[in-house]
């Protein structure tokens, strides 16, 4: 056996696999399949970008139409899944409910061919994200509308009202930014589970469990709660000073990769500004974000991340805070599927070692003598 090499905590700087799906870099760049994120953000639809991430190239028109039709065909969730959700406690966190629903769906569709399972998960995740929240909140299920695109459908199922064109555009931009982000915690979890040859439902259920935490997907919820706690722009500096003095985590700032700028945050800041201008409200929230981000950079040289601006965008769109992380999942499921397939194409079971620091050579003492 070769000598064990001690990796840094959190595996920072350690490459655990090869990928051609996406790449984030400390210089503040992000590419999906070689395309700079701004190119796709400015010009592509969610469905086009999802096809790119899954297939490795942009689709031709007929291919995109077929892809969209395939998603629509799989979008409806079996009523039996919602029956399971109705048995869960009212007020349960939507991510716990979503994870349970996806696991149940895997059991129900376990006999499907792998590609069909993937399309089913990607297509159903918006309905599951919206309706898992609606059910535990005492609201009726809203079925997907086959006429609407991915982003518009999710907004529609959350509110029960068809979104206007601008709201749908703004929301779709954020979903594109959440689609994929190389070897983050939930994606790594998906690949580890995939390496055991478990199916996509098992891997995605594990990915959802990893996504829930406030240091990963749950950061958008925590960031919005923090912004509401601060309240106004004139309290930004004093809140930050107090938080830093008391070593309190300031949510929505910092990233393991990006040290100067998160390109997704820069793009989202522009969306937020356009959104508040379009709606004629929310300018106070925009000014609070801008002032807090400036204060954090001045104090610690730590940039805002995607969650810091995505959260107020969702809030301005009147989306309930507990559903922010399920929204993340409804987009990232595409990235997970791409990584699952990439792992399967060149699979080797993940089985790292650990540096043992416990006791050795202890002697068993009978229970009557302890």
How far apart the termini lie comes to 38 Å
Main structural class: mainly alpha
Counted up, domains total: 2
Helix content: 55-70%
- What fraction of residues sit in β-strands? under 5%
Question: Quick one: overall form?
Answer: globular
Within the CATH hierarchy, at the fold level, what is the topology of the largest domain?
Citrate Synthase, domain 1
Give the second-level CATH assignment, the architecture of the largest domain: Orthogonal Bundle
Mean pLDDT figure: 94
Radius of gyration: 22 Å
**Overall strand count:** 3
Can you write the helix and strand succession as a string?
EEEHHHHHHHHHHHHHHHH
Any idea what the CATH superfamily of the largest domain is called?
A: Citrate Synthase, domain 1
Describe the oligomeric state of these chains in a short phrase. single chain
Keywords:
58% helix, Citrate Synthase, domain 1, three-stranded antiparallel beta sheet, 3 strands, 16 helices, Cytochrome p450-Terp, domain 2, mainly alpha, 370 residues
Task: Describe the protein's architecture and organization.
It is a single chain. With 370 residues, the protein is an all-alpha fold. It has two domains: 178 residues, Citrate Synthase, domain 1 (Orthogonal Bundle); 98 residues, Orthogonal Bundle (Cytochrome p450-Terp, domain 2), CATH 1.10.230.10. Strands 1-2-3 form a three-stranded antiparallel β-sheet. Helix 7 packs across helix 8, helix 9 packs antiparallel against helix 10 and helix 9 packs across helix 16. The longest helix is centred in the middle third of the chain and has 23 residues. The protein starts with 21 loop residues before the first strand and ends in a 25-residue tail after the last helix. The relative contact order is 0.14.
């Amino acid at each position: 056996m070769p000598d064990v090499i001690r990796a840094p905590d959190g595996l920072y700087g350690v490459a655990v696999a090869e990928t051609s799906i996406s790449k984030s870099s400390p210089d503040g760049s992000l590419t999906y399949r070689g395309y700079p994120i701004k190119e796709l953000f400015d010009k592509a639809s969610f469905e086009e970008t999802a096809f790119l991430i899954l297939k490795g190239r942009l689709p031709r028109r007929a291919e995109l139409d077929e892809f969209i039709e395939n998603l629509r065909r799989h979008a409806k969730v079996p009523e039996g899944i919602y029956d399971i959700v109705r048995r869960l406690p009212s007020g349960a966190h939507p991510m716990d409910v979503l994870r349970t629903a996806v696991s149940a769906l895997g059991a129900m569709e376990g006999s499907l061919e792998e590609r069909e399972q993937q399309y089913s998960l990607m297509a159903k995740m918006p309905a599951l994200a919206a309706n898992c929240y609606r059910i535990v909140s005492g609201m009726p299920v809203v079925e997907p509308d086959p006429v609407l695109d991915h982003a518009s459908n999710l907004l529609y199922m959350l509110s029960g009202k068809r979104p206007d064109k601008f709201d749908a555009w703004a929301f779709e931009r954020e979903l594109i930014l959440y689609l994929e982000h190389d070897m983050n915690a939930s994606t790594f979890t998906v690949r580890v589970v995939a390496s055991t040859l478990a199916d996509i439902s098992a891997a995605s259920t594990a990915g959802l469990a990893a996504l829930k935490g406030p240091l990963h997907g749950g950061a958008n919820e925590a960031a919005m709660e923090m912004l509401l706690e601060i309240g106004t722009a004139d309290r930004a500096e004093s809140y930050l000073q107090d938080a830093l003095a008391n070593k309190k985590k300031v949510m929505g700032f910092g990233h393991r990769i990006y040290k100067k700028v998160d390109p997704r945050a820069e793009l989202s800041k522009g969306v937020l500004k356009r959104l508040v201008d379009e709606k004629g409200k929310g300018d106070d929230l925009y000014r609070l974000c801008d002032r807090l981000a400036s204060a954090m950079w001045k104090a610690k040289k730590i940039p805002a991340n995607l969650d810091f601006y995505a959260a107020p965008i969702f809030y301005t769109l009147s989306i309930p805070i507990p559903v922010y992380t399920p929204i993340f999942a409804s987009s990232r499921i595409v990235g997970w599927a791409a990584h699952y397939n990439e792992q399967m194409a060149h699979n080797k079971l993940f089985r790292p070692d650990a540096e043992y620091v416990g006791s050795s050579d202890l002697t068993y003492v009978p229970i009557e003598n302890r």
